[in-house]
Design brief:
Blueprint: E1 2-5, H1 13-23, H2 32-39, E2 67-73, H3 81-88, H4 91-94, E3 97-103, H5 108-116, E4 122-126, H6 127-134, E5 140-147, E6 151-156, E7 171-174, H7 180-191, E8 201-204, H8 210-215, E9 221-225, H9 228-234, E10 240-245, E11 257-262, H10 263-268, H11 270-289, H12 291-300, H13 307-315, H14 326-341, H15 351-358
Parallel strand pairs: 1-3, 2-3, 2-4, 7-8, 7-9
Antiparallel strand pairs: 4-11, 5-11, 6-9, 6-10
Helix pairs in contact: 1-2, 3-11, 3-12, 6-14, 11-12, 12-13, 14-15
Protein name: NitT/TauT family transport system substrate-binding protein
Domain SsuA/THI5-like: 81-293
InterPro entries: SsuA/THI5 (IPR015168), TAT_signal (IPR006311)
Length: 365
């Protein structure tokens, strides 16, 4: 497996800084993209799998017989770390795959276009970032949910907020006005009787400064994803608390991140698409069963981030929830209905037809 970037040559200071800038996280976590892209070359090679004793996979398919695939991802996302760890544990090789990871610092539309046009074979990302783009008709099919629990709504402990309804008239800080966190918590607000367009004010700040906005009383809450929210909450000294997450209530068993595969690969080589889907699912189950091993891998690529914190993040996510059957199609349909509720999806979009068009079951014979 190799790590590369479509826009920067790995292994240079410029590439490292560009990756960190695209991620926008100024702490040690911010250099993760650069390191995984090759600023620190991996110590392992394709034929020298570093199997962890608790995760050792079955005998790998010989390298000469593996199918080569390119996966687009965001290496800074802790919740996607099982995908990177899957290589070192031999999981991709076990399923007959030789994968290359490409980091996309560009827009979701560009990432999905790259998959649809064959510049990449598959990608992993957040459903509420992808589904609006997929509404445009990209030839990318969702074959698996990988886990839930990436996002949190943190509120000021001093703002008198006890419930979501208490956010009426308040300001919520976000890093991106089209972010998955903004979309998700807009849905939650709507389901709790608030109009997310008029009853709250969404205000954009640089991602690292979201808690500063609350500290300065320019905002009363913030909506963001891991690893930031985990670190923000840990370092807040009680000034922040988690009001809700995307595991709250009815969302406890809903996937927030998904695997998408180019439609031509599914139609022309279903066996390889199925192998990739199985490998990704196995990787996330391994994160649930052995979070310490996955965290050790992630920390080895990210000096300054503790294994303890990474384990905490992984345990706070549902890596045992990775639907691939019609239940995934149903989850997509529910998201589509909810995105219509908050005026993200077009009113004319039929949620069930949309789900049918973007979902593919590659595991059923």
């Amino acid at each position: 497996m190799t790590f590369s970037s479509l826009s920067q040559r790995p292994g240079t200071r410029r590439a490292l800084l560009a990756s960190a800038g695209a991620i926008g996280f100024g702490s040690a976590l911010g250099v993760l993209g650069g390191r995984l892209l090759g600023a620190t070359p991996p110590a392992w090679a394709a034929d020298e799998l570093c199997l962890h004793p608790t995760l050792a996979a079955a005998d790998a398919v010989p390298s000469s017989q593996r199918k080569k695939l390119t996966i687009a991802w965001s290496p800074a996302a802790t919740c996607i770390s099982p995908i990177g760890a899957a290589y070192t544990q031999g999981i991709f090789a076990k399923h007959g795959l030789d994968v290359e990871f490409v980091s996309f610092g560009n827009s979701t539309d560009q990432l999905l276009e790259a998959i649809a046009t064959g510049k990449a074979d598959a990608g992993v990302g957040m459903a509420l970032r992808w589904l609006k783009a997929l509404e445009q008709g990209f030839d990318v099919k969702v074959t698996a949910g990988t886990h839930g629990g990436c996002m949190a709504l943190l509120a000021s402990s001093e703002a008198g907020i006890k419930t979501l309804a208490d956010l009426k008239g308040k300001t919520i800080a976000v890093a991106d006005m089209a972010s998955p966190a903004k979309n998700f918590f807009s849905i939650m607000l709507a389901k709790n009787g608030l109009d997310p367009l008029s009853d709250v004010e969404w205000r954009q700040y640089p991602a690292d400064l979201l808690p500063i906005a609350i500290e300065k009383r320019e905002a009363h809450a913030l909506a963001e994803g891991d690893p930031r929210t985990y670190i923000f909450l840990k370092n807040s000294n009680g000034k922040l608390f988690q009001l809700a997450s995307n595991l709250s209530g009815e969302y406890a068993n809903r996937a927030c991140c998904i695997l998408g595969i180019r439609g031509t690969l599914i139609r022309e080589d279903r066996e390889t698409a199925a192998a990739l889907t199985k490998a990704v699912v196995e990787a996330h189950q391994a994160a649930f069963d052995h979070p310490q091993a996955v965290a050790e891998y992630f920390a080895s690529q990210t000096p300054g981030v503790s294994v303890e914190d990474i384990v905490g993040m992984l345990k706070g996510q549902t890596h045992h929830h990775h639907p691939t059957d019609v239940s995934l199609r149903d989850e997509i349909a529910r998201y589509a209905e909810e995105l219509k509720l908050v005026q993200v999806f077009k009113p004319s979009t039929d949620p069930q037809k949309f789900a049918d068009s973007v979902y593919a079951d590659v595991l059923t014979v």
